[in-house]
Automatic annotation (TrEMBL):
Domain of life: Bacteria
Native organism taxonomy: Bacteria, Pseudomonadati, Pseudomonadota, Betaproteobacteria, Burkholderiales
Species the sequence originates in: Paraburkholderia dipogonis
Coiled-coil residues: 53-87
Protein name (database record): Bacteriophage protein
Keywords linked to the UniProt accession: Coiled coil
Length: 105
């Protein structure tokens, strides 16, 4: 039994933080289609394909939410432009009727 190496007890913890300060967020990835590898372009770390897919799905959801917010702002701007245009047309109509010359006999 001389080939058995004793190990001291290991403490295993799980870190659920999404982003650690001063660490790379791995938002710029490089895919190797031949080897099925995913690497970070910034720090060179090898990433699991599942992690990369999850990160891309999160970024996609954020982008869709932003597009939705921009579409809502655009719809509000369009309705406000229509309101202002209607008010301007009404104001110009009143000015035109006041400036019209009387008909000639």
């Amino acid at each position: 039994m001389s080939s058995v190496i004793p190990f001291s007890p290991l403490r295993v913890t799980k870190d659920d933080r999404i982003h650690r300060p001063l660490e790379c967020a791995h938002h710029h990835i490089r895919l190797d289609p031949r080897g099925g590898l995913v690497n970070c372009r910034e720090c060179g770390a090898t990433l699991t394909p599942f992690w990369a897919l999850s990160m891309l799905a999160d970024q996609y959801a954020i982008a869709l939410a932003q597009i939705q917010r921009l579409n809502e702002r655009l719809a509000l701007a369009d309705s406000r432009i229509l309101e202002l245009s209607t008010e301007l047309d009404a104001t110009q109509g009143i000015e035109r009727t006041g400036k019209e010359s009387p008909p000639r006999p």
